[in-house]
Amino acid sequence: MGKFFELQFLTGHIHYLLFIVLMMTGLFIVVDKTNLVKKIIGLNIFQVSVFMFYVSIGKVTDGTAPIFPMDSNYHVDQAAMQTILYSNPLPHVLILTAIVVGIATTSLGLALIVRIRESFNTIDEEDILQIEQKMTRDDNQKYKYLLRDML
Amino acid sequence: MANIAHVAEHTARDLIDHLPLLQVLVPFCTAPVIVLFGSRRFAWPLAFISSVISLVISVMLMMIVREGGYISYTLGGWAPPLGIEYRIDATNAFVLMLISTIGTLVLPFAYTSIKNEIRNRDHTLLYACWMLCFTGLLGMVATGDAFNVFVFLEISSLSTYVLVAQGASKDRRALTAAYDYLIMGTIGATFFVIGLGMLYMATGTLNLADLADRIANQGANRTVRSGFAFVIVGMGLKVAMFPLHLWLPKAYTFAPSAVTVFLSATATKAALYVVMRFVFSVYNPDFSFAKNTLEIIFLPLAIIAMFSASFVAVFQVNMKKMLAYSSIAQVGYMLLGIAILNEAGLTASLLHMFNHGFAKALLFMGAGAVLVKTGVI
Predict the structure, then answer these.
(1) Which pLDDT score, from 0 to 100, does residue A2 have?
(2) B337 backbone φψ class: left, alpha, beta (φ>0; ψ -120 to 50)
(3) Could you read off the pLDDT of B162-212 as tens digits, one per residue?
(4) What is the pTM of this model?
(5) What is the pLDDT of residues B272-292, one digit of tens each?
(6) Which residue of chain B has the CA closest to A96?
(7) CB distance B182–A109 less than 8 Å?
(8) Site from B151, B182, B190 to mutate, A interface, most A CB atoms within 10 angstroms
(9) What pLDDT shows up at residue A10?
(10) For A12-57+89-124, CATH number?
(11) How far is CA B316 from CA B33, B177, B270, in A?
């Protein structure tokens, strides 16, 4: 078994480590918090960690921003074109889509919370659970009576 | 026969060549048209017409690819590994046909059911969301690009959350059902994206056919393996694989009947198709980790789902909840077919997809009809 703790390996992969920390933080908030708004915040942190993961994998060592070398007179710099090393723009483009999806999800989630607050008068998951359990019990009672009447 | 990948000029194509795109585009364009018309009288007919058109298209696609081979459609004329490709083969066309048939059959039922269950002013937007959900499901199946699968998955999921929440006018628990589904669905979709990110890291491509080639060439490494795990867990949430099924009973019970019919018959099937694509096409069971995942994880979980969910279903008093639990059990049957890992198993799985799609749609329609007549189920 090789060296278990290798500093150079860790510093070289620091962005992955941070991604995992952020991702786990987000997931933990989603699972642990009972406040619905906090859950959405956790979900956001979770998603942002993935955005950062994507952006970091697009990085090419010594690569610059992927912009075509062209001046304001629309003259393409042929010499620069040969030598410039670009970072990979594709993950960034992909994540632009995912960011839009994330915003849509967040806004929909918050809209749902507003409606939940209106009809349940609380945004705490455990209170809602109690209300729902009571509703289910009432339903079951009702069905039982209905069934008895039918038979 | 219909390989049109080499054609760069758009003008040279006729309508038949554009079928794979039109399949997705027709319902997609219908959604904004419904909103723009803004009239409740036009919403349903527009939705129905566009569903019928996509049904016709899917049948035509099925006719073309029935004999084997595939249609490769390149969006915007960009060649496949770089551009987005729609790839229709026999499996694909079969699932497309299932989804569009169900979509068309459910709408006549939805007309009465939605009128009965939902406030009049929400009808227009509901049909627009319906069309978006339909688009997402068709797109997930039609596309040959891994990231496109995610985009369509989210289109269908986001509209599904809205559709489920519409049940709130009847029962407020629909709101929390939609919220739970939103949280779990988003976690699932994000896991799927992480998996795709890892696959992209390892291979540098997102085209499904290209991914399969490169993974087969370079063999398995840790990135590819963890990518597989993330993709399977993410899609497993959408499929309602046994321990990840928690969103399903509530969402199906409290959604409006017509929405439940549509979702139960199509949503899990489209996700299951994606799982099949990834297990058999992108990765293949020759890899020991893929084989082990199927044999050690899928197989026992599928069997547990078959028995436990059916067992729970028997004791439900609410008809829709009973059918929802039964859906989880049926997903277990389909996963078992995949996990058996041979041709017969996969055929059985696809066949059961079709059977369950229709059977469960009809059962939920029955429950919805009872609801329309009596007001309780």
Answers:
(1) 55
(2) alpha
(3) 999 998 888 889 999 999 999 999 999 999 999 999 999 888 888 888 888
(4) 0.91
(5) 999 999 988 888 877 878 888
(6) B151
(7) yes
(8) B190
(9) 78
(10) 1.10.287.3510
(11) 41, 18, 27
- Contact call for residues B366 and B262 (beta carbons, < 8 A): no
Question: For each successive 10 residues of chain B (377 residues), what is the average pLDDT?
Answer: 42 71 91 88 91 93 85 80 85 92 92 88 91 94 91 94 90 91 94 92 88 85 89 92 89 92 92 91 82 87 92 89 93 91 90 93 92 79
Residue among B162, B176, B194 minimizing CB distance to A53:
B194
> DSSP letter at A40?
H
The shortest CB-CB distance from A108 to any of B162, B200, B201 is to: B162
CB burial of B21-46 (b: ≥16 within 10 Å; e: otherwise) equals bbbbbbbbebbeebeeeeeeeebbeb
In a domain, B2, yes or no: no
Report yes or no on B48 lying in a domain: yes
Q: Scanning every residue of chain A, which has its alpha carbon at the shortest distance from the alpha carbon of B173?
A: A132
The ipTM, to two decimals, is 0.89
Q: Do A112 and B175 touch (CB under 8 A)?
A: yes
Any alpha helices (H) in chain A, and if so which ranges? Answer: 7-12, 14-32, 36-57, 78-83, 90-120, 125-150
Out of A46, A57, A108, closest to residue B182 by CB = A108
How many CB pairs below 8 Å do chains A and B form together? Answer: 83
Whole-number Å distance between alpha carbons of B340 and B9: 45
In a domain, B9, yes or no: no
Mutation target to probe the B interface, by most B beta carbons within 10 A, among A112, A117, A144 is A112
Number of structural domains chain B divides into: 1
Q: Is-contact B89 B1, C-beta < 8 A?
A: no
Residue A62, helix vs strand vs coil: coil
Task: For tokens 């799982």, name the residue.
Answer: B275
Both structure tokens of A128: 């809602």
In angstroms, the separation between the Cα of residue B183 and the nearest Cα of chain A is 7
The domain of B70 spans 15-374
